[in-house]
Amino acid sequence: MARLMRYALTLVWLALSMLADAGTERWVEVDTAARTLTVYEGSRPLQRFDNISVGRGGVAPLHYHGDGSTPLGSFHIMRIRSPHVFGSFYQLDYPRPEHAEQAFHDGRIDAGTRDDILLAARAGRLPPQYTALGGAIGIHGVGRGSYRIHRDFNWTNGCVALSNAQLHQFARWAKIGMRVVIR
């Protein structure tokens, strides 16, 4: 019952975070159910990308190292790496403080790990990437992978994947600090 309540609260938090900052901020919404990624300016859609892929483990409130899930939440682009094996890589600030608090509460990380993640967030740095919560979550292309697999399956280790052509178009919008809401 407590787990169901936490999940419901996470969904409410996600909905509220999407309503926040609805001014002229450019931001990204990843709709995992519809398999779309949409770039917005405030509430106005600028460009939508269909047939995206997410983690082979589906989506979850928390991503753990090796589980293949895509974490839900509100993130920011912290780093852009190009070239990358999958084209460019737009790394997100996962895990966020709320993920660390939940994992600590569930006994999956210790207080020191939680505190390191909280400190990184307060300092505006990329959080530790080698904890039980995993890391290297971001947006990337297919690279030299199979477009057929991309079209038909969720195949990543937890990231959001676009086709290479879509990634090239996404690059014109993406900036360091841009908010990315995954729901």
Could you describe the 3D structure shown?
With 183 residues, the protein is of the alpha/beta class. It has one domain: L,D-transpeptidase catalytic domain-like (Beta Barrel), CATH 2.40.440. 29% of the residues lie in helices and 27% in strands. The strands form two sheets. An eight-stranded mixed β-sheet has the order 3-2-1-10-6-7-8-9. A two-stranded parallel sheet has the order 4-5. A hairpin with a 2-residue loop joins strand 2 and strand 3. The two termini are 22 Å apart. About 7% of the residues have low confidence. Pathway: Cell wall biogenesis; peptidoglycan biosynthesis. Belongs to the YkuD family. GO terms for molecular function: carboxypeptidase activity; transferase activity. One of its GO terms (biological process) is peptidoglycan biosynthetic process. InterPro entries: LD_TPept_cat_dom, Transpep_catalytic_dom.
Write a concise synopsis of the structure shown:
The chain is of the alpha/beta class and 183 residues long.
Largest sheet: spatial strand order: 3-2-1-10-6-7-8-9
Arithmetic mean of pLDDT: 90
Order of helices and strands: HEEEEEEEHHEHEHE
Number of strands: 10
